Amino acid sequence: MAERLIGRNYTPPDLVAKVTGRARYAEDFRADGMLFTKLLLSPMPHARVRRIDASAALAMPGVKAVLTADDLPDLGGGERALTNEPVYAGEPILAVAAVDELTAAEAIERIEVDLEPLPFVTDPLDSLRPGGPNARLEGNAWGAPLPGGQGPGAPAPLVTLKWTPQDFAEADMGRLPMGKPLEEWAYGDLDGGFAGAALVLDETFVVQSTCHHPMETRSAMAYWQNGKLFIHASTQSVAQTRGNIARWVGMSPSDVMLICEYTGGGFGSKGGGAVSSVIPAFLSRKANAPVMMRITREEESYIGRARTNMTGRARIGFAKDGRITALDLYIVQDCGAYGPLGDHRSAGLAASLIYQPPAMRWRAVNVITNTPPRSQQRSPGPMQANGIIEPVITKAARQLGVDQVQIRRMNSPEGKAAFGPAAGPGGQRAHVTSAFIKQALDRGAAQFDWEARKARAGQRQGSKIRGVGVAVGPHGAGSIGFDSIMTIRPDGRLYVQSGVGNLGTHSVIDLARVAADVLDMPWDKVEVIWGDTGKHLPWTCMSVGSQTTHAMTRANHAGAMDTRRKLQEIAARDLGGSPDDYDIGGERVYRRGAPGRGLSYAQAARRAIELGGKYDGHAVPEDINPMTKESAASLVGLGLMGIAKDNYPRDGVTYSFVVGFAEVEVDIETGKTTLIDYLGVGDVGTVINPRSLLAQIKGGSCLGIAHALFQKAVVDPRYGVTLGDRFHYSKPLSILDVPASMKADALDIADPETPVGARGVGEPPVGAGYGAVLNAIADAVGEDVFRRAPVTADIVLTSLENGRRMHDPLRAHV
Amino acid sequence: MSYSRRNFIKGVIAGGAVATSAGYLFRGSGPLFGQTSAPGSVERLVTLNVNGQTRRVDVLKQETLAMTLRYKLGLTGTKLGCDRAECGACTVLVDDVPRYSCSVLTHTVRGGRIVTIEGLARANGALHPVQQAVVDEQGFQCAFCLPGFVMAAVGFLKTNATPTREQLAHGISGNLCRCQDYDKILTSLMRGAEYLRRSTT
User: Fold this and answer.
1) By the number of CB atoms within 10 A of the CB, which of A71, A374, A453, B15 ranks highest?
2) Other CB atoms within 10 A of residue A613 CB
3) What CA–CA distances, in Å, run from B35 to A97, A104, A333, B15, B47?
4) For residues A130 and A167, what is the distance between their CA atoms, to the nearest angstrom?
5) Which residues contact A521 (CB under 8 A, 6 or more apart)?
C-alpha cells in the first residue's frame, strides 16, 4: 500500500521554481518585438468623454496604436476595460502601445481628452439623501436580483432610491437611517423576540472598504498567432477565466490560450481574471505585435478592486442568560461604481447562521458610488457581518455578565443547523452540511488559556491595558458539480489535469493527492498539469470563496473512482471474472485472493489505448461540461482516462468556520493597539494539507486583523479621488504587526456530505481575526470607544480623552 | 568618452553579453527625451557584476536596477511589487547589502557585486541553504514576494547569523506579503539561518 497522502504535509512541485526565481508570472514573459502600454486614467470621478484627439501622440515616432472604448465590444452595460463614461477617478479611458514605456507615457501626455464633468457621490448615504447625487446616469442603487437570478453577483436592475428627510432624523445621533429597503427577508416572530428580551441593544457600525492589493498587480501580456489569442494574465481561476476573456474580446473561447501557471495573489480581485487584461490583446491586434501592459501599484489602487464597505445597524434582543431572541439587521452596502455585488446578502445569511437568532429580519440597500470598483474580497459579506454584529454581542455579554466565549457558544449553530429565510421551494429554510463550532470554541478556549488571559484583562499596567476577544468567522465553503480528467499512461504514471489557479494555497495540487489516494498511487508517480488552457483542463470551479478544496476534491474523487472502475473492467476483460473480483494496490489491478493475477497500471494503460472507447477517452460521459469534452478530445488515446462529473449527493449548504482568539494591549496614552497573541481554530472538515491549511487560517486571520487595526481605503468626498492609494497609505499588515509566533489548529472532523470530508478554508479566518481583535480592543477600553473599523490610534485616543465617541459614526471612506 | 547610438550598440554586441530582451523598455526613444549621449553625460554602456558574471548593458541615466535586471538581463526573478520602495519584492544584494532595486539607479552600482534570487543556488543546481529551508518548510504561498524576502534574509543573516524570531522579523520587515503568511515565512527563514550556520561550520 502506498502511504495515504491526505492529511500529510508534502513539498508542492512548484516550490523549487519559486525559490530560484524561475517561476514566471504574467510580467515575466517576453516576446520578440514586444510593445509596451500606458493607460490614460480619468482624473474625474464621473464624466463623459466628449472628444479625444490622439493625433499628436500617433505622430510620435515609436507610437504604434491608440485604443479607446470605441474599439471594444459592448458588454451589455457591464464594466469594460476602457470607457467613455468614467464612473470613478482612475478608470481607464484609453491605452497607448509604443516601442517602450517612456514613449507610451509621453504619448499619453500628448493626448487631449475633453471631459464633461457629471454629478458624483462617494458616500452611499449622501446618495440616498433627498436630492442626493446619483453615481451613474441610470440610477444610484442596485435593486433586488432579477427573477431566476441567484448567487452573489446575480444580475439586478439599476434604480434610483432617495429616502425622506424624516428617514435621516436620527443620522446626527450616529444611528444609521433606515429608509425604504430594496431587499429584505424575515423569519420567526421578531416583535415577540424583542418583547421577551431582557436586553435590547441597537448599534450602528461602519465596516471599511479596502483595496485587495495582491503583490502581483494585474499586468498582462498578449499576442496573436494564426487567429488565436495567447494571453499571459494573472488569474485565480484558469479554467473559468478563458471564457471571460473570450467574452471581453468577443471571440470563441477555444481560440483563447490563457497561460497563468503562477498567480501573485488575488484574494477575490482576480476571481475570473481581470477585465483590464484584454487591453494588450486589443492593442496587439491593432499594432500587429506582442503587447505588455504593466500595471503600477498606484493603478492597482484604482482598478485593482476593493471590498464593499457596509454601514450596518443591528438591533439585537438577548435573554438574561445571553441567548439571542431576535436580530434586526439593516445594511447599506457601497458597491462602488459597478456591480452588483451580493456581499450584503451573504452577510445577512452568515449572521443568521452563526448567531442562530430564532427570529430575524434582514433589510438592505445596495448603493453605487463613484469610488473604485468592488469585487468579492476574501470573506465577502460574512466578514462585514462579523464587524457589524460582534461589538454588539460583546457589549451584551458584558452587560449581562456572561463570558464572551460562552455567549458565542450558546448561540452557535450545531450539526445541520438551519439559517436564513424560509425561501426553499417548499417554504423550508436552508441548512448547513455540518457545523462543529462548539468543539472549536472549547478547544480554542483551552489552548488559548482563555480563563487565565481573561482574568488579567482590563488591568492597567502603566499606560497599557490588555483585552481578550473571540469571534466565529463563517463562510460558504464549497460548490459542487465540476469535472475532472486524469490519465494513467503507459509510463505507469498518473497525470491529473487541474484547472484551478495557482494562488499558493496548493489546492491546485492537493486535488491530485485525493486521486492518488483512491488509486493507491505513490506521490512520485503523479504529475499535475495546470496553468495553461492549452494543456486541456477540465471544467473547474472558480478559485474563490473557499470553494476549491471542496469542489475539486469531490470531482477528482469521482474521476479517480472512474479510473479505478476502468482498471477493474480491463482486468476482468483480459483475465476473466467480473470487475468486482478485482482490487487495486501497488500500482496494479489484481484478482482478489490471487495477487499474482493482474495487470500493472502501465499494462492497463496500454490495454486501454488498444480498447479505445470509454477506456482511453474516445467516449466520454454525457453529463460533463463542453470544456471538459474539448479537453478530453485532445487527451484521447494517451492512456486510461478517468473522467467524471461530481454527481455525489449533498444534503445542505457547505459552510466552514474558524474561531479566532485574540489578546491585545492598548496604550491609552498613545492609542496604539498591539496584538499580543492570536489563535485560530478551524472547523473546516477533513484536513487535506495540514501546513497549507494552518497557513490559510493564520494568513486569513491576518487580513481580518489588519482590517481591525489599520487597513482602509480613503476617498476625498470633495474631489472624489482615492487618497489611500498604494501600500503606504492603505496600510496593509507588516510582519512587525503580528506576534513573532501565531497559533492555529483544526478540528479535522470530516464533513458528512462530501466523499473526502474536506471543506474550504480561505475565507472564514478573515471574519474571525477581524471580530476577535475588535472584541479584544472593546474588552480593553470599552465597546463604546469605536463604532467603525479600523480602530486606529486616533479613534481610541480622542474617544478616551473626551470620554465619549468622537468620530463620525456614519461617514464612509475616512 | 562619448557614444553615438550606433557605437554603443556595437559596443554592447562586442561585449557579448546582450540578453535577447535588451532594450525593450527604452529602445528607439533617445532623441525624444534628450538622451542622446552628449559629451560629458553619464556613460550609458555600463559594466555590472551580476550573480558573479560580468554583464555589459546599455542603460539610461534614470533607469533603475530592477528594470535593468528584469528587462535587459532577463533576470525576472526579481519582482516589481510597487516600484516605490514600499514592498521589498525587488530586493537584491548589492555588495552583500539588501537594496530595493526599484529605487537604485543602475549606473550607481557599477563595480558593485549584485546578487539576485537567480544567483543564490550553486552552478550545479544545489540550492542555497535559505532556499532549501523555504522548500523544506514550504514557506510562502503565492510567492511573488518570495525573492525579495529571501534576498533580504540572506543579507540580514550576513550581519546576524543567530537571530531570534523577533530579530529576524525586524531584519525582513521591509518586505510585505499580502498572503500574510508571515508566520510560516519566519519559520522557514529561521530554518534557513540554521541551515546556513550548519553549512558554514
Assistant:
1) A374
2) 9
3) 21, 16, 51, 22, 19
4) 10
5) A2, A494, A515, A587, A601
What is this structure's pTM?
0.95
The residues that bridge with A291 in the sheet, in sequence order, are A35, A222
- Residues of A within 8 A of B189 (CB-CB) are none
- B123 within domain boundaries: no
Check whether residue B86 and residue B154 sit in a common domain: no
CA A56 to CA B13: how far, in whole Å? 35
As a residue count, chain A comes to 814
Please name which of A595, A405, A606, A571 lies closest in space to residue A490, comparing C-alpha atoms.
Answer: A606
My answer on whether B82 and B165 are in the same domain is no
Task: Please say whether the beta carbons of A154 and A91 come within 8 A.
Answer: no
pLDDT tens-place string over residues B148-191:
999 999 999 999 999 999 999 999 999 999 999 999 999 999 99
Quick one: closest CA in A to B187, which residue?
A: A741
CB contact (8 A) between residue B169 and residue A703: no
Residues with Cβ within 8 Å of B146's Cβ and at least 6 positions away in sequence, in order, are: A18, A19, B117, B134, B139, B140
Do B99 and B133 lie in a common domain?
no
Domain range annotation of chain A: 34-118+218-295, 309-478+652-802, 481-645
CA pair distance A118, A337, nearest whole angstrom = 14
- Do B144 and B52 sit in the same domain of this protein? no
Q: What is the mean pLDDT of residues A529-558?
A: 97
Cell numbers that stand for A615 in this block: 477506456
Spatial CA neighbour of A144 closest among A178, A180, A179, A182: A182
pLDDT digits (tens, 9 = 90+) for A678-732: 999 999 999 999 999 999 999 999 999 999 999 999 999 999 999 988 999 999 9
Provide CATH code, domain A309-478+652-802: 3.30.365.10
Report the C-alpha gap between B12 and B16 in whole angstroms: 7
Architecture of domain A481-645: 2-Layer Sandwich (3.30)
Q: Do residues B174 and B107 both lie within one domain?
A: no
Mean pLDDT of B57-66: 95
Asked if the structure places residue B177 within a domain, the reply is: yes
Q: Which CATH class is domain A34-118+218-295?
A: alpha beta
Task: State which H helix or E strand residue A527 sits in.
Answer: strand A526-530
Q: Is A690 helix (H, G, I), strand (E, B) or coil?
A: helix
Q: Does B118 touch chain A (CB under 8 A)?
A: yes
Q: CB of A24 within 8 Å of any CB in chain B? A: yes
B43 touches chain A (CB under 8 A): no
**Closest chain B residue to the Cα of A37, Cα to Cα:** B25
Domains contained in chain B, number: 2
Residues B181 and B187: their CA atoms lie apart, in Å, by 10
Nearest to A405 by CA among A340, A460, A472, A458: A472
C-alpha cell at A145: 436580483
Residue of chain B with shortest Cα separation from A502: B142
3-state helix, strand, coil in chain A (%, to 5): 30, 25, 45
- 3-class secondary-structure state, position A201: strand
User: Does A309-478+652-802 match A34-118+218-295 at the fold level?
Assistant: no
Residue for cell digits 504604434?
A: A64
Taking only the tens place, the pLDDT of each residue in A615-647 is 999 999 999 999 999 999 999 999 999 999 999
Cα dihedral A777, A704, A375, A556, rounded to 10, equals -150
Domain of B165 in residue numbering reads as 129-200
Out of A216, A265, A735, whose CB is closest to B173?
Answer: A735
Radius of gyration from C-alpha coordinates of chain B = 18
Mark which of B117, B148, B167 sits at the end of a domain.
B117
Residues B101, B13 share a domain = yes
* pLDDT the model gives residue A727: 94
Pair B167, B113 in one domain: no
- What CATH number corresponds to the domain at position B148? 1.10.150.120
ipTM of the complex: 0.97
